Amino acid sequence: MKLTDTILFSLAVALFIIGVHQTFTVGLVESYWLFMFCLGLLFVYQLRKKPETKEPLPPPGKGSTGVAVGGGKQKTAANASRSKKPGRATRFSGKPPKPARP
After folding, report:
1. Helix (H, G, I), strand (E, B) or coil at 68
2. What tens digit of pLDDT does each residue of 48-96 get?
3. Which of 29, 64, 67, 80 could hold 92 in an S-S bridge, CB 3.0 to 4.6 Å?
4. C-alpha neighbours within 13 Å on the C-beta side of residue 6
């Protein structure tokens, strides 16, 4: 953990403790800004802590090996036409959906 991250986290904790004290003495409305500032510092801390990934993500539905994840039957063009309801377009049909009638 870097010095900046340590300062951000300790400042957020200190503001939270001060906010709790102020809530008991003057009320939540007067100490609300302390909690919001504390949350802002925690968000900045979390963003700085999150590692940046340089490699591209795998396509949706595929694992790191390239095999489809999730089990079950995969829809193909052959069995997609059987499950299609008349008048409705599916993501496999390639046709736009029909407009609704008034």
Report:
1. strand
2. 987 766 677 666 765 556 565 555 555 565 555 555 555 555 555 666 6
3. 80
4. 3
Q: How far apart are CA 36 and CA 32, in angstroms?
A: 6
Q: Confirm if 24 and 18 have CB atoms less than 8 A apart.
A: no
15 alpha-carbon distance from chain centroid: 26
Query: What is the span of the domain harbouring residue 12?
Result: 3-49
Contact of 15 with 34, CB cutoff 8 Å: yes
Q: Is residue 23 part of a domain?
A: yes
Could you tell me if residue 75 is inside a domain? no
pTM of the shown model: 0.49
| Structure confidence by residue, pLDDT tens digits, 7-35 | 999 999 999 999 999 999 999 999 999 99
CA gap 36, 87 in Å, rounded? 51
Contact, 19 vs 31, CB < 8 A?
yes
